[in-house]
Amino acid sequence: MKGIKDLNILLKSIKPKLMGESFVFCTVKNLKLKLKDEAIMIFKEKEGITIILEKKIADQNKISYENEWAMITLTVHSNLNAIGFLAVITNKLASNGISINAVSAYYHDHLFVPIGKSKEAMKLLNELST
Question: DSSP labels for the chain?
Answer without folding.
Answer: ---B--HHHHHHT--EEEEEEEEEEEEESS--HHHHHH-SEEEEETTEEEEEEEHHHHHHTT---S--EEEEEE-S-B-TT-SSHHHHHHHHHHTTT---EEEE-SS-EEEEEEGGGHHHHHHHHHHHT-
